[in-house]
Specification:
The protein is α+β, with helices and mostly antiparallel strands. The strands form 3 sheets. Strands 1-4-5-8 form a 4-stranded mixed β-sheet. β6 and β7 form a beta hairpin. α1 crosses α3, α4 packs antiparallel against α5 and α9 runs antiparallel to α11. The longest helix has 29 residues. The radius of gyration is 22 Å and the shape is globular.
Length: 398
């Protein structure tokens, strides 16, 4: 414990000396740095902050030092994140490569793949997209049909992927592809890394109900992929996919913790928009709903803490399988609650007459519906919980 206290003091001192004041302010979407071949830093301070964190090994402090990480323990990594949050330090670089792909390559990739891709992710040289869902394979992901034919020295990929976040801005995409059409579902799937500049790849943006357009449909037309871009074993990609989904679900469970929009807190919104009688919210239903929400969030926070303690103690925990469902459903409840609290002030979509927080709240309410689908729908998550956590009996197909 004393060593960790000393480490915290050192982290605090380093952050105070190295994080520019401009990087301790709430961030906007335009100021987020995602890296990649075409990326530009939004400011000189943003570049300086990223480079200092990269050189320190703290972009991903828990990743091995030989690939550019910090080589630190989970406890030390948490201290860094806590101390960054304490001074409102901005995330120096965002990316699916950091959140999801990197851990999967560290677990299943070969040495050449680790040297090439882990370093490139940390150095912000590549921006990654995720190629999982298809128009006919969403929640039932294992029924995917995007195929990769073995052509000897390369695979030939044909098909499409949907809901590929910012694929039109990305350099690489990791894809689940069917390499054995005769095998049953999961048994014939492989995990490929594909350079988006390869001939035959095209993207089409998809407009969302929130008015944003960060998702794309990505098409593959006779795309040649080198054999060395196969992660793990041929036809065993489902194992890699499941490992990656653990990290995606963790990300979804923490949705909103690093949002460029100002986070509106229901308790604060209640004091701003609702009438009070004798120190209590006058509307009994809203008072009850707000109390239920606060208790749920407290329970989720305690479970997050328990999960971290179990992980650092080497205890195998089922809690992460539950957190994606709880976190995204809570985000949906929060959005509904905020609109109820704001009343007509929460109905503005654009234009004058509404505060920015009010406009953002309505758009986040629309996006909250997607959170319960991305990374595995809530219905699928309940099936996973029933099978893997509660070990309930499964219905067998006749």
């Amino acid at each position: 414990m004393e060593d960790l206290d000393q480490f915290r003091s050192e982290v605090r001192e380093w952050l105070e000396a190295n994080c520019p004041e401009s990087q301790r302010q709430p961030i906007t979407a335009a100021e987020q740095f995602w890296g990649g071949r075409r990326a530009k830093f939004p400011s000189e301070d943003a570049r300086l902050w990223y480079e200092r964190m990269r050189d320190k090994g703290w972009i991903v402090p828990e990743w091995p030092a030989e690939y550019g990480g910090g080589g630190l323990s989970d406890q030390q990594g948490k201290i860094i994140k806590d101390e960054m949050k304490r001074i409102n330090a901005r995330t120096p670089v965002y990316g699916i490569g950091i959140w999801m792909l990197g851990p999967a390559i560290l677990e299943y990739g070969n040495e050449q793949q680790k040297q090439q891709h882990i370093r490139a992710i940390i150095n912000a040289e590549t921006r990654w997209a995720q190629g999982y869902s298809e128009p006919g394979a969403g929640s039932d992901l294992a029924s995917l049909q995007c195929k990769a034919e073995d052509m000897g020295d390369h695979f030939l990929v044909n098909g499409s992927k949907i809901w590929t976040t910012n694929a039109d801005k990305c350099d690489w995409i990791f894809c689940l592809v069917r390499t054995d059409p005769e095998a049953k579902k999961q048994e014939g799937i492989s995990f490929l890394l594909i350079d988006m500049d390869t001939p035959g790849i095209s993207t089409t943006p998809i407009e969302l109900i929130s008015g944003e357009s960060e998702f794309c449909q990505t098409f593959f037309d006779n795309v040649k992929v080198p054999k060395e871009n196969l992660v793990g074993e041929l036809n065993k990609g489902w194992s890699v996919a499941k490992a990656l989904l653990v990290h995606e679900r963790k990300l979804m469970a923490e949705m909103g913790s690093d949002s460029p929009r100002k986070i509106v807190v229901p308790n604060e919104a209640a004091h701003k928009y609702l009438e009070f009688e004798d120190g209590r919210i006058a509307d009994a239903q809203l008072r009850s709903d707000l109390a239920d929400y606060n208790m749920q969030m407290h329970a989720i926070a305690l479970t997050h803490f328990r999960t971290f303690e179990e992980k650092t103690s080497g205890v195998r925990s089922a809690a992460p399988l539950v957190m994606k469902y709880l976190g995204t459903e809570a985000e949906k409840v929060k959005s509904e609650l905020l609109l109820a609290i704001m009343g007509s002030r929460g109905l503005g979509w654009e234009g004058e007459g509404f505060e920015q927080d009010e406009l953002d709240t309505l758009r986040l309410w629309a996006m909250s519906k997607a959170f319960t689908i991305a990374g595995g729908s809530s219905e699928i998550q309940l099936n996973v919980i029933a099978k893997s956590v509660l070990e309930l009996p499964q219905n067998k197909e006749k």
